[in-house]
Each structure stands twice: as C-alpha cells, then as structure tokens.
Design brief:
The chain is mainly alpha-helical. The protein is built from 17 helices and 2 strands. It is 60% helix and 1% strand. It has a two-stranded antiparallel ribbon with strand order 1-2. Helix 6 packs antiparallel against helix 11. The N and C termini lie far apart (68 Å). This is Glypican 2. One of its GO terms (cellular component) is plasma membrane. Keywords: Cell membrane, Glycoprotein, GPI-anchor, Heparan sulfate, Lipoprotein, Membrane, Proteoglycan, Signal.
C-alpha cells in the first residue's frame, strides 16, 4: 500500500496528477511487470510443454521397445526354427536391426537402401544353403545378387518390406511415420520453449506497468485493468507470437494426421511384427523354388565349383533329399511390446493436440480471462481504464503484428518483425513438411 499521496510530476509511466509512488518505485514496478508477464506466459504454455515432453518420451520408449521385441522374437523363433543355419548367419539379421535403429534415431540412413542390402545379403546366404554341394566365391554370390531383381527368389515379399518401383512398403511407411511423429513432438517441445521465452520489449513493459501497477500508485491496488485495456496491451506485447498461429495450426494438424496413419495403414506394431514373418516366408519361397532359381542363376552366372568332398549333382537332384525349412505356426509369431497399446497412445495424443490449435492467437484472451490479470466483463464501469476508474472506450485491436498499427496502448513497429519469431515460423514449416510427406510414406531426407 502507498504510504503518502502527493503530486506525480516525477512519474514517467503513470498519470501525473497525484500518486504515492516515487520514481524508484515506478521503475521497480515496471521490472516486476515484466517478470509477472513472462511468468504468466510460462505458466500458460506449460501444458503445451508438458504434453510434448511426456508424449515424446512415451512414443519414443514405445517404438524402441517394439524394435527390441521384434529382434528378440525373430532371434528366438529363427533359432528354434533353423537352428545352426540361423545362428551361423545371425549377423545378417543383427545388422538389419542395427540399421533400423539408426534410421529411427535420426541417422542419415536410407531405409530403402537398408532393406535392399538386407535382401541382397540374405539371398546370397540362402542360395548357398540350398546348394550345399557347391562352393561359391564372393564374385559368384555378387552375380547371384545382381540376378535377384529379375529372378525374384523371394517372390513379392521384399516389395512388402522395402521401397521399390516408386511405391512405399508397409515397414518403410511405418518407420518413416513413427520417426516423423517422434521428431515432430520434439520440435513442438522446442518451439514452445523458445516462443515462451521471447523477451518483452520496452514499449510492452511500459504498457504492462501502466495497466497493472499504476492503480497501486493511485492508492487503489485492488483495481483491475479493464478487459479491453488488457487485451490491447497483451496483443501488442504478443504480436509476434500471434503470427506463429497459422503455421502452428498446420503443424498440429499434421501431427494429428500422422498419428492417425499410425492407427491404420502405417501401424508400427504390425509392421515390426511382420518383419520376421515375411523373412521366414521369403526363405521358404526360395527353398521351394530352389531348383528353378538355381538353374537360372547357373545359366546367368556360370557353373559353380563343386564343394570339396561332394559330387556335383543337378539342381533337381539336390532338391529332392533335403529337409525343407518350415514357417512359423501362429503361436510362434513375434509378440508386441508388453503391456503397451499404440491405439491408446495415439488416441491420448490426439485428444491433447486438438485443443492446441489457435493457442498463440488466443493467448491474450487466455491471459486476460484470468481475474488476477484483468477485471471481468461485469465490471466494465468499475475497472482501471489506463487513467482512472471507468469504462475503457478504445476498440480492441486485431491479431498479429500488422494489426498493431493502431494499437492505442503499445507502440509496435510493424515494419520490424521479430527475427526469432520468423525463425520459429520457418522451423514449423520444415517440421510440417516432413510430417506431410510422412503421411504418404515419403522420407524428406531422401527425396530427389
């Protein structure tokens, strides 16, 4: 409370007719105004920051667990199914999951190339296993790989796991969408953190002081600013943040749309589970068609050398006596991440994302709806109008930087957009573009 009321000629911000504030008090209250304002912005945006932080962690942990479980299940099932044939060639499968994790973690990895390399290495190993009576050099196996595109030793199964003929496959689309969503949630967290920490300019601080603490200097500390006054001050102070809103809404929409893809055609749970099943089916396909495949390879690559201690037999002869590989029985198929449900995660995320639309443009209204910040509409005649107790008459200005040209409370240079805000807008555009491409199964890092 003010101890003494006296002339206010010394004041620079508040009305000068009478006051109980010294110049030092006025300066201190101006600094407090800035602290209060930035604290209010931080508090109001906290739910955004918390949502992005927690959802990012949950999805990231979930996707990583899915990949771990898929590898573990494949290892268990293939060890049981193929025994030494698998364990002796396990490095091929281990390398696949190393690269899948590297891609998911944001590494500069082409998923199409990773899967193509896996199939190439696998066809070499399986071809050797179905032709044990021959000895194949590295050069010969490279020839086998080159013929694989025409011979399709695994049938159409590789098409379902990798990019081919300009069409994205199931696993690739799921990994692209999952990575894009997790990266998008991280971007959202960073954008909110940066936008909420933009400093208040001098004109903004002076306007905040006039609306919040000049009543105190007049001896009426309980008098709240009129809502119209509060809105004009906040719109002037938050003009640049309001300009984030269009790109922010696009970003939120893109996050929702990608998450919906994960519920349906790009489901990561089903995708990682399918890897072991499709690989097993591919191996079976090559084994069942080994005679015709081997014959064509021998025609294209030449006759291989017989293995030491083995007599050369025809492909038809070698195909008749070998114990065939077997596929999974349904109960052996890989399990998903224990105790976790992707649909539930996505549903929760969408429920939290949708209210975020329009956050930045509505921020002045959110702040001024707080009864600690401004008087409510029922007190329009009993509020602080910037000069005294009474109705606030000026119109409330529009949203965004350009609309502040006629703001009666905050002088805003509309010809000088805030550089940091423009940078955040560009970051949002880049993130939105990545998310939109992910909706169609495209990875922006590898688009020609």
């Amino acid at each position: 409370m003010c101890p003494v009321i006296g002339p206010g000629e010394h004041l620079r911000l508040c009305p000068q007719d009478y006051t109980c504030c010294s110049s030092v008090m006025e300066e201190a209250l101006a600094r407090k105004s800035e602290v209060d304002f930035l604290s209010a912005i931080d508090d109001t945006s906290q739910f955004l920051l918390t949502t992005f932080t927690l959802r990012h962690r949950k999805f990231d942990e979930f996707f990583r667990e899915l990949i771990d479980m898929a590898e573990k299940s494949m290892n268990q099932m293939f060890t049981k199914t193929y025994g030494k044939l698998y364990t002796q060639n396990a490095r091929v499968f281990q390398d696949l999951f190393v690269e899948l994790r590297r891609y998911y973690s944001g590494g500069n990895v082409s998923l199409g190339e990773v899967l193509a390399e896996f199939w190439s290495r696998l066809v070499e190993r399986v071809f050797s296993l179905v032709n044990p009576q021959y000895q194949f050099s590295e050069e010969y196996l490279e020839c086998v790989s080159k013929h694989a595109e025409q011979l399709q030793p695994f049938g159409d199964l590789p098409r379902k796991l990798r990019i081919q003929a300009r069409q994205t496959n199931y696993v690739s689309r799921a990994f692209i969408a999952s990575r894009a969503l997790v990266q998008g949630l991280a971007t959202g967290r960073e954008i909110v953190s940066k936008a909420a920490k933009l400093s208040a300019g001098g004109e903004c601080v002076r306007a905040l002081m006039r609306q919040w603490y000049c009543p105190l200097c007049r001896g009426t500390p309980s008098l709240r600013p009129c809502r119209g006054l509060c809105l004009n001050v906040m719109k002037g102070c938050l003009a640049n943040q309001a300009d984030l809103d269009a790109e922010w809404n696009n970003f939120i929409d893109a996050l929702v749309q990608v998450s919906e893809k994960l519920e349906g055609p790009f489901n990561m749970e089903l995708a990682v589970d399918s890897i072991a099943v499709k690989v097993s089916e591919a191996i079976m396909h090559m084994q069942e068609n080994s005679v015709s495949i081997s014959t064509k390879v021998f025609q294209g690559c030449g006759s291989p050398r017989p293995a030491p201690g083995r007599s050369r037999r025809s492909p038809r002869e070698q195909g008749g006596n070998r114990r065939p590989f077997r596929t999974y029985s349904p109960e052996e198929k890989p399990t998903t991440a224990a105790g976790t449900n992707l649909d539930r995660l996505v549903s929760d995320l969408k429920e939290r994302l949708r209210p975020m639309r329009g956050f930045w443009v509505s921020l002045p209204y959110t702040l001024c709806n707080d009864d600690k910040m401004a008087a409510d509409l029922t007190n329009e005649d009993r509020c602080w109008n910037g000069q005294t107790r009474g109705r606030y008459l000026p119109d409330v200005t529009g949203d965004g930087l350009v609309s502040q040209i006629n703001n009666p409370e905050v002088e805003v240079d509309i010809a000088r957009p805030d550089v940091r805000t423009r940078q955040l807008i560009m970051e949002l555009r880049v993130a939105t573009n990545r998310l939109r491409h992910a909706q169609t199964g495209q990875d922006t890092d590898f688009i020609d």
